[in-house]
Sequence to fold (381 residues):
Amino acid sequence: MTGPAKVLAINFGGIGDEVLFLPCLATVKRLAPDCELTLLVEPRSKSVAEVTDLIDKVITFDIKKRPLTPFDLYQLAMLLRRGGYDMVISSGSSPMVAMLLFLSGIPLRVGYDAGGPWKSLLTHPVKLLRDQYAADMYHDLTKGMANYLRRKADAKASIREEDSPYQVPKVALKPDSLKAMQDFLEEGLKTTATAGDTRPVKTILVHPGTSQMAVSKGIIKHWSSENWLSYIQLLQNQKDAPFQTRVVLAGGPDDKDVVAGLEAAMAKSGDQKPYISAVGKTKGLADLAALTSICDLLACVDSAPMHIGVGLNKNIVALFGPTDPAKLIPNQPNFKVLADRPEDTGPSATRRSLLDGLGVRLRPENVYRSSMDLLLAESIR
Fold:
């Protein structure tokens, strides 16, 4: 073995952040294929292990605990020490992160250059470039590991670099979840069949929810229930396409209020046609990934389900409000981004977009048209 035997990767954030971190983990495994790879995450994100086969072990620490005391940080440092790791790769960029990695006693420490004297606490600092797709930003950390291996290996040896313009996450599916979701969708299509319509069916997975953490920070990324309802009705009532469109509605525990509002609006509508409700049917992230994989298109806001869809290379219509699409989704033909970006891009516009509470302001007709364009393009390929 030329690489470290035990590697710890640290990435605190939500499920979306962990999915975006997967290309970094994939390159760690490629550079050190025999290593035992442990991922340290927040408790809310430990289920990322359900959508990847790269991780040998997941451990958790509540970095968002308030108040976070010096004793808590001491416990974290001891957690790192006890692991017996040969190398640690951390996405944190603050001086505190550099100090914790130093105190961990792990001999090889890769992280973002925090500047000043803090840089010396890392054995392999990496420049932090925020103005790029987040998966690429995280993947830059592997340059520190690659530099170590280059110095360790024969001068003639080379480490292959990825050819893709983006480091796109790859989501792995669990066979049991895939079988359960295939059975669920098949039954749903039977019970919502439209008499006399013999066109093939295209399924649109509608996931209206967004992270509660973002909401707590005042980053309002939702689309209103009224808009989702109008969009769904446009899909259900279309008759000109060479296929039927069937809506599959999904939402997790964090989305219960959003989904309840949408289902209430649908129930009040006098023109509501049958749809397939997967609410409460997806028991975890593995089920959501499996359901996403077998639907023809995913319609969502900037959220963890969007990153899951990217990791499955699905057709996606992604609705953006206050966040920057260029940093969160690759520029690919099957990923259609609709962004509610103010013409004034100065600080006042950013503040308005974040704090006015109105969320995404896009017309349902435009979201519908983008969805149909993707489905039609796929049907003629």
Notes: The two ends are 45 Å apart (CA to CA). The longest strand covers residues 201-207. The CA atoms of residues 163 and 207 lie 32 Å apart.
